[in-house]
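ok, trying the design again with the full structure, not the truncated one.
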């Protein structure tokens, strides 16, 4: 039985806790060992071993792909050495001059990669507000080879209707990709919503321990999986054995961490929404969120990311973050430690100011990735921040 069939109806916690367990034929270890060998012995010149060369295949990467594919309902895919190399891998599937329709408020690194590829004449990047279905339809009507989706968006936690976008993208003949890093497969399953490809930065919640970087690209169609594997090998984008081993270790507790981080995020978001020094809070779990109902339908929970604007402008955000004692000023997200950042000057600084303004990334915006600390302690720390502004 394939993992996909076996895990179809299983609880997400069961999948995370069981893939690769007690499969070590050599010593019967419960946890999978780390296989670092770059190459394996051939029995004869025509008997290729399963794991002939580690850029192409490695047992630790295979296990991690099995776990991620089972979680996403994918047929397979590739574990890459970063989220960005997974993005590059997705773009390598396209022909020269392909049109890629991406969100105007996509991840900063995605924006930079698409812009850079466009400047080299490799592809044409079209950034559009995908929450505006007429604007999306107009962008697709000009022809699209790939529709890039990211919901909830970062840092504004905007939600797009993935099933409707995927349908429109498919009708236009595009390959539809969803960056599922923020919600994780614990909260959203893009393949079930009609997407062809799922992208992850495993640097974030999937590893969850702020101690490595990695990525993954998964697909539901075996022929796409094959193309992904071919290009990952051809371009040398695969992740290391050690990272794959460690990411699977982190993944064991992903469902547990997401539950706890989300519960805390709900409490912090509700507290911020009532705070007199807050201008607005972006969190899909608040009924004030413009897409609250869509989020409730499309995701199995609002997740652990939120952003908010405070009174006092950019200078206020500086004083706020410098007064914090528990929460750390840093980019990245999804780990055990709560991190705060000012997207305009940090995560999204690669975007020109006009593009930032267009996407609504204002200088007084703060983005928070809630970790595993107690809600009361985080709230007390933010109160320290407000007191300093
Ligand atoms: C971090 C991130 C990426 C890029 O991943 P890296 O591992 O940093 O290369 C892509 N998309 C989203 C949504 C991210 O948060």
């Amino acid at each position: 039985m394939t993992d996909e069939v076996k895990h179809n109806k299983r609880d997400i916690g069961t999948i995370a806790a069981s893939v690769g367990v007690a499969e070590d034929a050599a010593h019967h270890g419960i946890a999978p060992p780390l296989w670092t060998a770059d190459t394996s012995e051939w029995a004869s010149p025509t008997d290729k071993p399963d794991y002939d060369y580690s850029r192409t295949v490695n047992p630790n990467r295979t296990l991690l792909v099995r776990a991620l594919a089972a979680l996403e309902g994918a047929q397979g895919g590739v574990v890459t050495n970063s989220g960005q190399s997974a993005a590059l891998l997705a773009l390598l599937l396209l022909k020269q001059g392909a049109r890629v329709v991406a969100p105007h408020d996509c991840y900063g690194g995605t924006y930079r990669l698409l812009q850079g590829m466009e400047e080299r004449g490799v592809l044409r990047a079209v950034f559009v507000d995908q929450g505006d279905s007429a604007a999306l339809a107009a962008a697709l009507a000009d022809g699209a080879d790939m529709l890039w989706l990211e919901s909830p968006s970062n840092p504004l936690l905007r939600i797009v209707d993935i099933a409707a976008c995927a349908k429109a993208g498919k009708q236009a003949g595009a390959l539809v990709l969803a960056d599922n890093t923020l919600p994780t497969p614990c909260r959203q399953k893009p393949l079930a919503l009609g997407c062809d490809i799922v992208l992850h930065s495993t640097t974030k919640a999937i590893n969850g321990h702020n101690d490595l970087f990695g990525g993954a690209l998964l697909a539901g169609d075996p022929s796409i999986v094959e193309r992904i594997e071919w290009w990952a090998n051809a371009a040398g984008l695969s992740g290391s054995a050690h990272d794959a081993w460690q990411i699977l270790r982190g993944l064991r507790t992903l469902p547990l961490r997401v539950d706890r981080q989300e519960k805390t995020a709900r409490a912090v978001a509700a507290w911020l929404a009532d705070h007199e020094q807050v201008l607005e809070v972006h969190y899909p779990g608040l009924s004030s969120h413009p897409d609250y109902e869509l989020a409730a339908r499309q995701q199995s929970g609002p997740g652990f990311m939120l952003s908010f604007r405070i009174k006092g402008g950019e200078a206020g955000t500086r004083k706020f973050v410098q007064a914090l004692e528990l929460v750390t000023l840093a980019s990245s997200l999804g780990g055990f430690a709560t991190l705060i950042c000012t997207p305009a000057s940090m995560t999204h600084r690669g975007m020109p100011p006009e593009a930032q303004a267009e996407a609504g990334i204002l200088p007084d915006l703060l983005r928070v990735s809630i970790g595993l600390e107690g809600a009361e302690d985080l709230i007390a720390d933010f109160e320290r921040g407000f007191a300093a502004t």
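Keeping the full-length input from now on. Residues 82-84, 107, 109, 154, 179, 181-182, 201, 203-204, 213, 215, 333 surround pyridoxal-5'-phosphate (CB under 6 Å).
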